[in-house]
Amino acid sequence: MTRVRLTAKERGEEVLQAAVKAFAASGYEGTKTDEIARMAGVSQPYVIRLFGTKQQLFLAAVQSVCDRIEQLFREAAEEAPELASLGQNYHRLLAEPEVLLVLLHGFSASGDPAIGDCVRQRFGSIYALIRELTGATPQQAREFLSAGMLITVMSAMQVIGPTAIPLPWAEEIAKTLD
């Protein structure tokens, strides 16, 4: 069997995707770069050569998941520039739980100045994008983000989404999010 040789950019994308999965599972503090390297099928020094430090790799993972959220919102707005359309697309992330988990881990690690700066900037960008795409008022955007954070937290608790643990209270809340 012949191995396909990847470009540095392609290999970097593989490492980044492995990092998203690893950080989603273990968070910033609990993830080791050698674990990410193993998942990506590369050496740990290669991971460091590509991203510099674990912190820079985590920041790249946070940027990647925020890019994904913004992409979903832009796609939704092309169909219908309304909050409901953006919300329906955000629900698609329930099938990509690692995106939501890395976002939560980013919030959690925001006590680190560099991570906090990145997370605050990206959350602000998402807020601005929501308003820009839909014309939502600050109040409407806040309510939309509040519902999104509830979805994100419930996904992390595994009480909403395709593999949800059925609990009456969670099912009741989930009905109000549609």
UniProtKB/TrEMBL annotation:
- Indicate whether DNA-binding appears among the record's keywords: yes
Summarize which parts of the chain are annotated to bind DNA, as ranges.
Answer: 32-51
Give the Pfam families listed for this entry: TetR_N
Alphabetically ordered keywords of this record: DNA-binding
Which Gene Ontology molecular function entries are recorded, alphabetically? DNA-binding transcription factor activity; transcription cis-regulatory region binding
Q: Taxonomically, which superkingdom?
A: Bacteria
Q: Where is the HTH tetR-type domain?
A: 9-69
DNA-binding in keyword set: yes
Q: Supply the name of the protein.
A: TetR family transcriptional regulator
The source organism is Kribbella rubisoli
Organism placement in taxonomy = Bacteria, Bacillati, Actinomycetota, Actinomycetes, Propionibacteriales
